[in-house]
Structures are given as C-alpha cells and as structure tokens.
C-alpha cells in the first residue's frame, strides 16, 4: 500500500482530517492521565496496613474529663471484654483508617528536620493483637510501658518500634536498632523494626508507612479509644454489640458512631471517595472513546459515500476488496497517528497542570504507548464497518453514476 496517494487525498479534506486528529489528540491526553489517576487510586486502595484487619475493630468515645480517664478505661475494657466473641481489648491512640491521633515531626539531632511521622500509642498486648510482623530487634518488654504525664500525649522517653519504611527514610543503608530520634523534647530509642504499619491517615505516597509504636500505660491521654480483637466471622456482630454496650458501661460518654467500626468498614469508608473518582473516570474514558469512535465512523462513512465513483473505478481496473479495505484502514491509521503524536504532548501538559494543582505524580512514559495502542485499536475497529462497506461496492454499481 503506497502512503503518498493517501496523504494527497487527505490534503483535499484538511478540515475534516484536522478535526478528527484533534479529537483523537484530546482522547489520548485524557486517556493517559485518567488511566494513570485510576491506577494511583487503586494502588492506594490496596495499601498493606500491616495489621490483622479482618479481626480488628475500634470503639471511640468522647465527652469525659481527663481525670476520669483511668476509671473510664477500666470500665470500658472490662465491659467490652465481656462481650461474647471478644478475644482482647486494649487502650490505643488510634488504628489504621481511624482518627489521626498523633502526627509530629522528628529530628535526629535536635537541629535538622527529619520527617513527619504517625505515632501510635498502645498498652501491653496491643502489638500482639494488631498482628504486627517483627523483622528486626525486639518487642517492648513490661518495663517499657510507662504512664503518660498529665497534659502530654506521648511519654517523654521510650523504647519504640518503627516501620521498615521509616527506618529506611531516617537511616538509609544503616541498622536502625539503638538509634535515637526526637519529637520536640521527647526522646525515643529504636528497639525493633516491623515490616508494615500504615499511618492512620493512609494518605498514600512514600510516607504512608512512616510510623512508630510507642508503648504506654492506659490513662491520661491514652483513653477513649479501644481496639477490639475478635474472630473475623464474629467481628461485625461483636462491633454491633460493642456499640450498644457503651451506653450501659459508660452512660456518661458520647459514642463516636462514625469511627466505632471494624477496620474493614473503616477502610471501605476511607476509600469511598477514591472508588467514586475511579468510577467517574472510567465513565469519562468510556464516553470519550465512544465519541471518538463515532467521529471516526461518521467521517469514514461520509468519505465512502463520496468516493463510490473512485472505489468503482479502482475495482474495475483490478483492485481487490482487500486493497480497498487496506486503503481505508491505512488512511485511518495515519490520521490516528497524527492525533496521537499531538495527544502525547497534550498528555504531558495536562499532567503538569494536575501536578501543580492536585499534587499528582509525574506521568510515567509507559502510559503513552498504552494510550497509543488503545487508540490505534479503537481507530481500526471504528473504521472497519465503513471500510467493509466500501470493499463490498461492486464495480458495476459504482460506475453507473458516471
């Protein structure tokens, strides 16, 4: 198939060719960025928390005086533990996907900024109930669990666990065991490293697992939030009973219904917006590709009707149906390719705008050939019907209009 005659024919239809190419360019730019955004959202939704999610829930209460914290903890832990099916109850600052209870900057030398991390505070037994995987060092022992001073939200000093991601961030290429870091005047020594322990906010990106576990005794600010562990088959029933039980064991507090849920429910609620965004973008992609395909079909059908005489002459002088079919497919391929080239440039421009205003990461290059292949395939499918109709025109029918 010679390309030059096709290009000469396209120059006679510059406006129509340009409009279809621009439609394809826009589709390419939107397709690449939309697929990239969907992939990012799906990746964030599949984040590994590092805890036994299927067995864990959280009960959050408010409206109590700090001086009542110890008494409230005793009543809540005893009352919740009495629910059939509950394996353990512990006072914690938060759980993954729960309220963000402790975020602070850390330094390694009191002078230079290190990073911002999520702090988890919990009593003895919390780590085992969470199901954290220790990959280096040791777990806190009984002496590491100390009371939190009045009006403080962390113990002033402690031996703590950090995630592998945080260790790599603060001490790249080094063992974190025995290392020190500070949050304001608070001083902490690393005694162990866990594989994964996602921060409560779960915002995605590199810092999603920059977190540390600080052991502490219940009381003071470590009150009002309780981690419940139960068999996965019983968890939702246990959480329903736990929410009802709060009114009996602590009628003077206010139950936070939104956050008093199992972790699977908290996860689903946390990513509800992301799922909606992904669904909306899939709809946008489908609509855009549908409009693009209709544009290609309409233009190809129009050209087939206009070229019946030309097609009949070519068939009369020996062109086969395959030749006619390949002509229209090659013509479409050239138009789509021109649109894709412009669309790739538009894709980077659109990505730069999204990076500036919505903090989206840089668009990886491999999304461009994916978008190109999708549009080439769409173009060939869209033109196939009109091309087959053109190839089916018999020479005698086409030449009767001469």
TrEMBL record:
Q: How does it sit in the membrane?
A: Multi-pass membrane protein
PANTHER family assigned:
ABC TRANSPORTER PERMEASE YTRF (PTHR30572:SF4), MEMBRANE COMPONENT OF TRANSPORTER-RELATED (PTHR30572)
Arranged from A to Z, the UniProt key words for this protein are: Cell membrane, Membrane, Transmembrane, Transmembrane helix
Q: Does the keyword Repeat apply?
A: no
Q: Which residues form a coiled coil?
A: none
Q: Which residues form the ABC3 transporter permease C-terminal domain?
A: 284-394
Annotated membrane-spanning segments are 15-39, 277-305, 333-354, 366-384
Q: Where is the MacB-like periplasmic core domain?
A: 56-246
From what organism does this protein derive?
Answer: Rhodanobacter glycinis
Q: Hey, which family's this protein in?
A: Belongs to the ABC-4 integral membrane protein family.
Query: Which GO-annotated molecular functions does the record name?
Result: transmembrane transporter activity
Q: Which InterPro entries match?
A: ABC3_permease_C, MacB_PCD, Macrolide_Exporter_MacB
Its name, as the record gives it, is FtsX-like permease family protein
**Subcellular localization:** Cell membrane
Q: Which domain of life is it from?
A: Bacteria
Keyword presence, ATP-binding: no
One GO cellular-component annotation of the UniProt record comes to: plasma membrane
């Amino acid at each position: 198939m010679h390309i030059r005659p096709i290009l000469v024919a396209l120059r006679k239809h510059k406006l129509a060719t340009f409009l279809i190419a621009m439609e394809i360019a826009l589709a390419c730019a939107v397709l690449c960025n939309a697929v990239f955004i969907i992939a990012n959202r799906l990746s964030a939704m599949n984040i590994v928390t590092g805890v036994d999610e299927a067995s864990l829930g959280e009960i959050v209460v408010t409206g109590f005086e700090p001086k009542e914290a110890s008494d409230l903890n005793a009543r809540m832990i005893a009352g919740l533990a009495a629910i059939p099916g509950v394996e353990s109850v512990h006072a914690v600052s938060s759980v993954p996907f729960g309220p963000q209870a402790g975020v602070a900057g850390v330094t390694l030398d009191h002078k230079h900024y290190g990073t911002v991390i999520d702090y988890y505070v919990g009593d003895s037994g919390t780590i085992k109930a969470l199901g954290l995987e220790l990959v280096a060092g040791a777990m806190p022992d009984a002496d590491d669990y100390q009371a939190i001073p009045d009006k403080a939200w962390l113990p002033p000093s402690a031996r703590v666990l950090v995630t592998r991601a945080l260790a790599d961030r603060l001490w790249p290429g080094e063992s974190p065991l025995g290392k020190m870091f500070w949050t304001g005047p608070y001083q902490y020594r690393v005694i162990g490293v866990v594989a994964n322990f996602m921060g409560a906010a779960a915002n995605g990106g590199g810092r999603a697992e920059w977190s540390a576990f600080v052991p502490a005794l219940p009381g003071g600010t470590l009150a009002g939030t309780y981690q419940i562990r139960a068999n996965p088959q019983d968890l939702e029933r246990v959480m329903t009973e736990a929410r009802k039980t709060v009114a009996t064991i602590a009628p003077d507090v206010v139950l936070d219904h939104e956050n008093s849920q199992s972790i699977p429910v908290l996860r689903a609620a946390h990513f509800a917006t992301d799922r909606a965004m992904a669904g909306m973008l899939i709809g946008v992609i489908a609509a855009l590709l549908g409009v693009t395909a209709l544009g290609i079909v309409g233009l190809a059908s129009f050209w087939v009707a206009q070229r019946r005489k030309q097609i009949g002459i070519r068939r009369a002088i020996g062109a086969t149906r395959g030749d006619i079919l390949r002509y229209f497919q090659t013509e479409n391929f050239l138009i789509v390719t021109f649109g894709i080239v412009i669309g790739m440039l538009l894709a980077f421009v659109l990505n730069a705008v999204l990076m500036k205003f919505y903090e989206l990461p840089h668009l990886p290059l491999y999304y461009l050939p994916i978008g190109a292949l999708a549009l080439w395939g769409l173009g060939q499918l869209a033109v196939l019907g009109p091309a087959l109709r053109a190839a089916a025109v018999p020479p005698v029918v086409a030449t009767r209009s001469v």
